[in-house]
Amino acid sequence: MEPPSCRPAARGPPGPGAELCPIKFSDVTGRLCVWLARRDWGGVGPPAKRAAASLRSRRARRSRGRAGHVGALRQLRVTWARPRCGAGTVGAGSGAFRSAGLRMRGGQGAARAPVLQFTNCRILRGGALLREDLWVRGGRVLDPEKLFFEERRVADEQRDCGGCILAPGFIDVQINGGFGVDFSQATEDVGSGVALVARRILSHGVTSFCPTLVTSPPEVYHKVLPQIPVKSGGPHGAGVLGVHLEGPFISREKRGAHPEAHLRSFEANAFQDVLATYGSLDNVRIVTLAPELGRSHEVIRALTALGICVSLGHSVADLGTAEEAVQSGATFITHLFNAMLPFHHRDPGIVGLLTSDQLPPGRHIFYGLIADGMHTNPAALRIAHRAHPKGEWPGRAGVGRSAGGTGPEVPSPAGLVLVTDAVPALGLGNGRHTLGQQEVEVNGLTAYVAGTKTLSGSIAPMDACVRHFLRATGCGVESALEAASLHPARLLGLEKHKGTLDFGADADFVVLDDSLHVRATYILGELVWQAEVARQ
């Protein structure tokens, strides 16, 4: 059996002497589309024009409620007649990707980027798995109707996905390192370590991530942060969306694995003290802080004004303090349930934000969750999921819910974000490893601060977290996948380009089998990782 692959196949019809299979059409519409596609567009006669008009009319009558529904074009899965097995070709195994070229008439595709059509797949789009084809050109997801009816083009190349799931690439907004690399170590070549992790996490379906620095002394931030710029993904590895600074402005009581000696509070100059600690915020995307620290709301407002996401975590804040932080601009909770006050019926603490009715109009909260099987009990995972199962925050137009609004329901994006919180020991075996200024001991599936029973991050990759979350919560496959893709993209305001396979979005996607194991990873429509499967 051959591994899933999307290697380009030879374009155009097979050479002479090949034993040909008949071209198959799924229905009359598909037959008509192909007949039109093979015509010289400059000389289409009245019958073809009438047929094209009929297709356009049919398209106009279709319901617009289903994004990405391409009607007749879903059936345009024509493959050049190819040699039968035994006539100079090798039959593809179960689940393998099979490619075949589709020739363009008149050389119209010569001066343009090639169009790829991924067939025989289920696409995660609009919260549902749709049996539709994915069309890609120039690194973006393409609308096939515009391609066919406006540009009069069809695919330059088709790739059979063997019935697999195509989901948006995973986005990990909290990862401290992995494969022996510690992002919080002030080495002379931090970039090479980031590049190694970026390359290795492709095998786990991650196409974008936020390298995370734990609490460190100022000189570490000053040296490391300039070496981790925002970077697009590609064959070299997953894209870097910006750095996540987890600390040092956190609670001493809930510091977890963060070294107490380097914790800081906001001094009289507040935001200027933040700048002095970090040195620069140019490459920063997320800052985790404890909202109960004095002058924290002033800092939150200053950070959000710069477009930086503020997350609440490692905190002993009560619910009222947490609500004030959200009112000041905070939009995220760092690893929900971990390193915060436990839920109490008289004061639920930060956890209470999941059902708070005191958030102002347009404000909502996302919450990170480590679903590695160690950090969070399955019952807690179910509570977190069921609080906002659709990734939406209910509300009324124009007024806060606490004001008793009566306008139409206008849900805003919110909800659960799967994170790994992976430490440098990810991908390594048992033993002692580093995490910032601390030593971590790995034993089996757990990582502890050496000599203690304090959990110190996770050693589970993102795809494993997705599978565990699915099993533990009983949610749908769609919900589990969106928690690792669409929700983190929405958190960072990137949902038009990342975390989705809507038309115009970046063609970052992961190919998954039915058990949600990664078979291949694509960035901007380019194959960047492929599973190795033994040939039979």
Overall description:
It is a single chain. The protein is an alpha/beta fold. Helices cover 21% and strands 21% of the residues. It is built from 12 helices and 27 strands. The protein has helices at residues 28-37, 46-61, 144-150, 190-200, 218-224, 271-278, 296-305, 319-328, 378-387, 462-473, 477-483, 486-491, and strands at 98-101, 115-119, 122-125, 128-130, 134-137, 140-141, 157-160, 165-168, 170-175, 177-178, 181-182, 206-213, 239-240, 243-246, 284-289, 309-312, 332-333, 366-370, 392-393, 412-413, 415-419, 431-435, 438-443, 446-449, 509-512, 518-523, 526-530. The strands form 6 sheets. Strands 9, 12, 13, 14, 15, 16, 17, 18 and 21 form a 9-stranded parallel β-sheet that branches. A 6-stranded mixed β-sheet has the order 4-3-8-25-26-27, covered by helices on one side. Strand 14, helix 6 and strand 15 (284-289) form a beta-alpha-beta unit. Helix 1 crosses helix 2 and helix 10 (462-473) packs across helix 11. The radius of gyration is 26 Å and the shape is globular. 47% of the residues are buried. One of its GO terms (biological process) is N-acetylglucosamine metabolic process. Belongs to the metallo-dependent hydrolases superfamily. NagA family. Keywords: Carbohydrate metabolism, Hydrolase, Metal-binding. Its cofactor is a divalent metal cation. Its EC number is 3.5.1.25.
